[in-house]
Amino acid sequence: MTTLTDSPGRGASTPPPAPTTPTGGAGLSLYRVVHLVQVWLLPALLVVEFVAFSLLSPFFLTPQNLTNVAVNAADLALIAAGLTLVILMGGIDVSTGFAVGMLSWVVASLMAAGQPPIVVFLAALAGGAVVGLLNGMLTARLAIPSIVATLGTSALFQTGLFALWNSRDIFSTPVFPFLSGGARLGELPILVLIVLAVYLVLHLVLTRTTFGRSIYAIGSNVEAAKLSGINVRRVRVIGSVILGLLIGVAACTYLARVGVVQASSGGELTMLAIASVVVGGTSILGGEGSVLRTLGGVVFIVVLDNGIVLAGVPSLWNGLIVGFVILVAVSINGLAVIINARKKRSL
Amino acid sequence: MQSTPLLTARGLTKRFGATKALTDVDFDIHAGERVAIMGENGAGKSTLMKLIAGVYTPDAGSLTLGGDAYAPATPTDAIRAGVSTVYQEPSGFSHLTVLENLFMGRQTTRALGWLDKKSMGREAGELLARLQLPTRLLKRRMGDLSLADQQQVLIARAVANEARVLILDEPTSILTDTESERLFQLVDQLSAAGTAVCYITHRFDELERVADRFVVLRDGQNSGETDDPDREGLLRMMGSVSSVTVGADGGLVAAEDAVPSAIAEGEGGTEGEGGVLTGSGVADAAAATSAPVLVVDALSSEGIFRDISFAVRPGQITGLYGLVGAGRSELALAICGELPIDAGTIAFQGKPYRPHSSRTALEQGIAYLPEDRKTQGIFPHLSVGDNLSAAALRGVSRAGFVSTAGERDLVATWMDRLSIKAETPASPITSLSGGNQQKVLLARLMATNPQLLILDEPTRGIDVGTKREIHRRIRELAATGIAVLLISSEMAELLELSDTVHVLHEGRLTWSAVGSEITETAILRAATGAAA
Ligand SMILES: Nc1ncnc2c1ncn2[C@@H]1O[C@H](COP(=O)(O)OP(=O)(O)OP(=O)(O)O)[C@@H](O)[C@H]1O
Ligand SMILES: [Mg+2]
């Protein structure tokens, strides 16, 4: 051992090794900071948002304003919930907005034709299921990357809506009273309760059922999912169909909110839905995230929109601020992924 | 055996494009039998297993299971029929917990697919206990575990299926002897209970321990089978005799290798010296005293390793040993700038060196062969040639333009030197057998002319013949003055190649030795924390 310049015994002669679990250390390593930020960013942003806006506008924190915001968020919340499933599987859907627009035309026309509400509602669901099935089949069966497939269907829905609209705006009343903010249970709009119920159910499905596990598994490692005996295609298609059904419901609540179908109805929802999921902290690469986080993302985005208007900021700024916040959220996620990858080898 | 086999395969043929992976292969296994499937890299072992596991469907031929026709179209069919597989390439879900990984695809449920978490938790605890793994692992994310621990979780998952046929494709290639032995005990229990175990390995020293019968494939065809673990016979069947000869002590020696002291593969050499293997100590005195190319001083990374000091000299091979979780690979990653350093310093070629990423490390002349081929090594969408030349393109470029001819020569040279078995350099890397992919990665690094070569399990999954070849290349490289840091879980490899050995135990450097002081017993004692 004479030729060694270092002291081999060094490690052994110092006190016994400290516990070597990465989470056990008390120090605030970069890894822990990023992890904490990743978990707490959204709650913190929500708090800042609420405090700031209530200071800026006395009207912001009134029950009336908040229920309004909640009711107006319904369609976005429903789409984002379904979209979370698709994104968790490592997919994406950029056709949701125009799908809502096109279906809302169908709903409005059926209403105008005097069809009974239940028929109209079921038609919206059926239309949504077809939309979901179409997107699901294109991606799962024909193996077209979801971004390409849904860009295609989005163009299809947009053109479809334009052709159907045919320069005639259709005005409409809500299909069911409870699909607008009007019907209430005590103080709470029934619509808000329905949305919350959807989130609760999806949360339970994702965390407590084999189907939910399969969704995370597919997003985490498709090959391994296949080898584990998961029917990847079927789960993908079912996920898309669930999103489609929620789009069908969203078309009804969208119509109840805006009251009219126009040439470009719904288009703005596509980006907002993706933003809600991502700001919520669900990984755009799949495998990680939850619908509850998406709900937080939805709240953040609709409150931002509302607060900016109430605070008298020119609405031009709105898009800028939302865009900026999304970039920040996504970079923090990205940073966490990188640092996780570096630290992952620790035992 | 007189009884009818549990699983039979007749005339299996499988083509991938122009490659005939399997031609007319027969295979039988009885309940409770342990069969080793042997063969060189690319012989078709994994393909045969994947046909049984329903990953591929055969172009011709048929299977029976338990006397009935068996034609799995998907892995699901195979799992349902009682065939459980641990694949050569790790296939876990890194975002999910160990518990979730253990039960993926076979969760215990009540109505409507509702998960029965309580009973799964109980069962999972028992499973881990069988492999002597701590239950606290259950809540950890799979991706946070070391590769070897992930492998053990995957083994536990396969075992959990209570399979009739268990397929293990090179399960021990990243495990040290300690973890391997636990697996062998498990295999014993399972085969005693009637499970048929198909076992693929390139490690001759574990053959007798894990198998009753040896089936050899060669170029996708049956090449013979035997009950006799005699190395020479097996090697002849595998077609490896040209590159490997059997030494006087029963160990394997590369044919070109005239050095008689080369340590035998496996336990062959152990007996002659009273249970003690010694290092080869090939380095000459000059190399042993030359100025170190890499000096690591009191290096720490929070929660992973602490206070590590050692030096790597040009022309020498420095071995790093340690049990799974000791921090060997992590130390290598830190030197490459892929793991944050919290304290301590590194000097490279006499100058302070603070690595930021593998790219800076590579520019400085430090090349690193990662342990996890699939996620850290290959570019799965690129060709064999592109994978091989990826790190050495600068050498064959002018003003940023890659010289096509230069790249082609480079690729051809290295494919030839390491005898890489690929249809053409343009074939996708994923079409190569596991061992051949590993060779491509090795070639990629060697082609960069590094000053320091860090090799993490360089011969993982590589057949004996090629392993000798790679060992020879490593020694040659060292002889030209390159410093080599070698991490290996395989004791024989470490003893054979290393001039100096450092042993890590729970993130600390517990023992170091040079030349003839390197003994297997001492290394094992240090690795288990017994030595001070
Ligand atoms: N998916 C695939 N596409 C194309 N060729 C393939 C594919 N899988 C295997 N092959 C080819 O089939 C042959 C047999 O490969 P296989 O993986 O079965 O070898 P192996 O015996 O398991 O080797 P190793 O010891 O290296 O793991 C090889 O020539 C390989 O290149
Ligand atoms: Mg193989």
What descriptors fit this protein?
heterodimer; A: 347 residues; mainly alpha; ABC transporter involved in vitamin B12 uptake, BtuC; two-stranded antiparallel ribbon; 14 helices; disordered N terminus; B: 532 residues; alpha/beta; Rossmann fold; 3 domains; six-stranded mixed β-sheet; 31% helix; globular; binds adenosine-5'-triphosphate; binds magnesium ion
Give structural notes.
The complex is a heterodimer of chains A (347) and B (532). Chain A is mainly alpha-helical and 347 residues long. Chain A has one domain: ABC transporter involved in vitamin B12 uptake, BtuC, CATH 1.10.3470. Chain A contains 14 helices and four strands. Chain A has helices at 10-13, 30-56, 63-72, 74-88, 96-112, 117-141, 146-165, 190-208, 210-220, 222-227, 232-258, 269-280, 291-310, 315-343; strands spanning 170-171, 184-185, 188-189, 260-261. In chain A, the strands form two sheets. Chain A has a two-stranded antiparallel ribbon. Chain A is globular, with a radius of gyration of 24 Å. Chain B has 532 residues and is of the alpha/beta class. Chain B has three domains: 7-238, 3-Layer(aba) Sandwich (Rossmann fold); 289-365 and 450-531, Rossmann fold (3-Layer(aba) Sandwich); 380-446, no CATH class. Helices cover 31% and strands 24% of the residues of chain B. Chain B contains 18 helices and 24 strands. In chain B, the strands form six sheets. Chain B has a six-stranded mixed β-sheet, with helices on both faces. The interface between A and B is large, with 53 and 72 residues. Bound molecules: adenosine-5'-triphosphate and magnesium ion (MG). The site of adenosine-5'-triphosphate has 21 residues of chain B, from strand 2, helix 1 and helix 15.
Task: Set out the fold topology.
The complex is a heterodimer of chains A (347) and B (532).
Chain A: H1 10-13, H2 30-56, H3 63-72, H4 74-88, H5 96-112, H6 117-141, H7 146-165, E1 170-171, E2 184-185, E3 188-189, H8 190-208, H9 210-220, H10 222-227, H11 232-258, E4 260-261, H12 269-280, H13 291-310, H14 315-343
Antiparallel strand pairs in A: 1-4, 2-3
Helix pairs in contact in A: 2-13, 2-14, 4-8, 4-9, 4-11, 4-12, 4-13, 5-6, 5-7, 5-11, 5-12, 6-7, 6-11, 8-9, 9-11, 12-13, 12-14, 13-14
Chain B: E1 7-16, E2 19-29, E3 34-38, H1 45-52, E4 60-65, E5 68-70, H2 75-81, E6 83-86, H3 98-103, H4 117-130, H5 147-160, E7 165-169, H6 177-192, E8 196-200, H7 207-210, E9 213-218, E10 221-226, H8 231-238, E11 244-246, E12 252-254, H9 285-289, E13 294-301, E14 305-312, E15 317-321, H10 328-335, E16 343-348, E17 351-352, H11 358-364, E18 366-369, H12 373-377, H13 384-389, E19 397-398, E20 401-402, H14 404-417, H15 434-446, E21 452-456, H16 464-479, E22 483-487, H17 491-497, E23 500-505, E24 508-514, H18 520-527
Parallel strand pairs in B: 3-8, 3-9, 6-7, 7-8, 15-22, 15-23, 18-21, 21-22
Antiparallel strand pairs in B: 1-2, 1-4, 4-5, 9-10, 11-12, 13-14, 13-16, 16-17, 19-20, 23-24
Protein name (chain B): Monosaccharide ABC transporter ATP-binding protein, CUT2 family
Keywords (chain B): ATP-binding, Cell membrane, Membrane, Nucleotide-binding, Repeat, Sugar transport, Translocase, Transport
Organism (chain B): Okibacterium fritillariae
